[in-house]
Amino acid sequence: MYTLEGAAPVCDLKLEQPLIAPIAHFLYASRKAWEHEMSKASPALEAFIDETIRRGREKGYVPTIFIGMRQQLGTRPAIAKLVQSGDLQSGFKRLHKLNLLDWTIEAAVEKFPNEFTADDLGCASFRLREARKGDGNADRT
Prior knowledge:
Elements: H1 17-39, H2 43-58, H3 64-73, H4 75-84, H5 90-97, H6 105-111, H7 118-132
Helix pairs in contact: 3-4, 6-7
């Protein structure tokens, strides 16, 4: 019996194991739904990434690994995972060679900073800055 000090009993609920499992499941499902909602990219970011892929295809590059990650994880988590990686991604290198630095996922992070963490932004900015040093190889359209 649960009561507030000096108050009448409020319920006769006994916390037993069978009650904990449904509550835990509900909390887990709620968190997963929240994480999914928070991982959604804005329509503007989705459009930017679609355009990035289109521009790459026009020049003969199809980012199949990124496309798969995007379908599996969602756009924002896929981008965050790749820019946080310590490895310089092959897609970044290819787009740089194709004069499309401003259409990389790193450029997307800079263009939509409110959709990413400070770490994501720092990693993306560092890569872009290093790639642009002295090469003048950026497509600024």
